[in-house]
Design a protein that fits this description.
Length: 265
């Protein structure tokens, strides 16, 4: 009888110990699984980040037209990526480096300032030159990025006023600080498109010609029809030929295509 009691107690003890071990083992396993799950959840937590919505060139301004918001798992995200919650801190900034569509925008993509991003658009061997224009000379501020213009030069020779072509078929890439890439962003802030300076990307020779023209007379721009590819020779006009209808001299203006950036106010 006594032996049966002892045996029973041993069996009960063994079962209890086994149950306790199973309980604690199950708790340990469950805790480990939950910790691992939490770690994976944190690692693959989707974060809303700013990405390029198209292939973007250096010099492009960040705006609602050039970027979008996309969810990307934290584990696949660069630590330098810009979160959507920080969008206001970078809106309007300039890209110093090109980006592919869908690529997250990084702090390292951004130029230190607008000028740094803009200068990156200049081709090797070209120079940026700025000169002032008044409302009349700039076609009453109606030029837009993507337009093409001819530049006229007016001066006097003795007592005779003369107007002649200076440069032709010049592509406009910006008006004021408004460019094709930042136009939508700037239009949201202000619809005004006034400007009072012109900045051109030219060869050093053409920069010298424009600089001399500023000092010697007046510069006026003419808007070209966008599909007009015709090479023309513009007449040199004098006051005498204008009044009397005399035969005017034909001159061949410089036709080197130069990029023109209209800037200022």
């Amino acid at each position: 009888m006594k032996g049966s009691v002892i045996t029973t107690l041993m069996v009960v003890g063994a079962l209890g110990a086994g149950g306790a071990a199973a309980y604690f083992a199950n708790g340990y396993i469950e805790g480990t699984v939950n910790a691992r799950r939490s770690e994976l959840d944190a690692r693959y937590e989707p974060l809303r980040v700013v990405v390029a919505n198209a292939d973007l060139r250096p010099g492009v301004f960040l705006s609602s037209q050039t970027v979008a918001v996309r969810e990307i798992p934290r584990n696949f995200l660069h630590s330098d990526a810009i979160l959507a919650s920080h969008w206001n801190d970078v809106a309007g900034r300039v890209l110093a480096h090109g980006m592919r569509s869908g690529e997250p925008v990084l702090q390292s993509h951004l130029a230190r300032d607008v000028a740094a991003g803009f200068s990156s658009q200049l081709a090797p061997g070209m120079r940026a030159l700025t000169f002032p224009v008044d409302d009349e000379a700039s076609i009453s501020g109606m030029l837009s990025p993507g337009d093409r213009i001819d530049i006229l030069f007016t001066t006097t020779s003795g007592s005779e006023a003369i107007t002649m072509p200076l440069l032709v078929d010049v592509p406009v890439i910006a008006t004021g600080i408004r460019t094709l890439t930042n136009a939508a962003y700037l239009d949201q802030k202000s619809p005004a498109r006034q400007f009072n300076t012109v900045t051109v990307s030219v060869t050093p020779d053409n920069a010298a010609r424009i600089t001399l023209a500023q000092d010697a007379g007046r510069i006026t721009v003419m808007l070209r029809q966008p599909r007009d590819e015709q090479s023309i020779q513009i007449a040199r006009i004098t006051k005498r030929s204008l009044i009397h209808g005399d035969r005017v001299a034909k001159v061949a203006p410089a036709r080197q295509r130069v990029e023109i950036i209209l800037g200022g106010g």
